Amino acid sequence: MTRNKQILKVSALVLGIALCILALLFGAPQLANVFWVCGNYHAMRNEFRAAVDDCNRAILLNPKHEGAYTTRGGAYNGLEKYTEAIESSTKAISLDPVDATPYANRAYAHGELKQYQKAIDDYGAAIRFDPSDADDYVNRANAYEHLGKTDLAAQDRATAVKYGYKP
After folding, report:
1. Residue 33 and residue 159: Cα distance in Å, rounded?
2. What is the DSSP letter of 114?
3. Torsion angle of alpha carbons 119, 124, 129, 130, nearest 10°?
């Protein structure tokens, strides 16, 4: 084993011990929030694998952390792992059924899997909980178009423009 690999192994061990101590001092739910924030940071930087890893750590510490499931669902979409995105988003919805983001994440995954009616249904839920998100209207319009429902697509595009979407 090279010196660098030895240093990495020891560093990982020290980090693991430090995290266990933090969990004992501050409680696992607080440490879960730290990992979730890190997951969000990685997701915003399109570092989706790291985002999933951090969210998995948060969920391990707090299995009811809705935000971690939501962020993980979006990161799985970024990795094009749509089945996993649907599963993670569904869990987030079960923990907080009025948060729009996991519905939008799940809708996106359904759309990529060509499950357009499911995408429409989930975008509808996202819109119900956050009616001013122009992206949800545009994405639902795209799903409507795939099903040949052009008048509904046109209505959604018009609404999206009302909320700031620039075609």
Report:
1. 35
2. T
3. 90
- Alpha-carbon distance of 109 to 118, in angstroms, equals 10
CB atoms within 10 A of CB 22: 14
- Separation of CA 20 from chain center: 26
Task: Note the residue count of the chain.
Answer: 167
- Residue type present at position 154: A
Closest CA to 108 of 154, 140, 148: 140
Question: Token match 């749509």: residue?
Answer: 82
What is the residue-level pLDDT of the chain in tens, covering all 167 positions? 566 556 656 565 565 556 556 655 655 667 888 889 989 999 999 999 999 999 999 999 999 999 999 999 999 999 999 999 999 999 999 999 999 999 999 999 999 999 999 999 999 999 999 999 999 999 999 999 999 999 999 999 999 999 999 98
Task: Please name each of the domains of the chain with its CATH number.
Answer: 27-95 (1.25.40.10), 97-167 (1.25.40.10)
The pTM for the full model equals: 0.84
- Fill in the DSSP letter of residue 166: -
